[in-house]
Amino acid sequence: MSPLRDATHRGNRSSSGPIRPIMSLTTMFDDVDNSDVVDHRELAYFAGLFDGEGCINVSEVKPKPGRLSPCFQTLAQVSMTDRRPLELLLKSFGGTMQLVNKEGARPIWVWRVYHKTAKLFLEAIVPYLIVKKVQAELLIVLENGIPGRGVQRRLSDIEVKRRRKIKDEICALNGPSLYAQYLKTLDE
User: Of 78, 8, 79, 82, nearest to 38 (Cα)?
Assistant: First the structure.
């Protein structure tokens, strides 16, 4: 099996080099040891999961007393009733996974990655995305403009407006008509 040529590290590491999963789809189903990289087929599979079951969110947190500027928190998540695909995401990209039980509904597993890890995940799958491609690209742009976490600096009014605009664009694209918009582009 060929290793992935264009990939990123998992977790909060830098954005160069291969993704290093603990277990991959290919090693689950083959006897070949290919646990060092996630290949293109796996990234396409993860993109399909994300297009169908995932979401992207940006929230603005008002500054606490003593803080200089609002904070913009980014998130990518996938929710589904079968935990196995989410375990693959967790092992390949890191993040968190939890079980959500709502009365009268089937239990739902939720896998989440935040901030730079969300950016790295989306950078890896964006070539394969269809429905959520624009939101993913917007989150990547937003995260590229955010310095390392814990850095305290005052944002200019222009930068706060830029980040709010990206957040608002992602929120608008997350609306219920997103799939209808995508179908409309196919007709053009």
Answer: 8
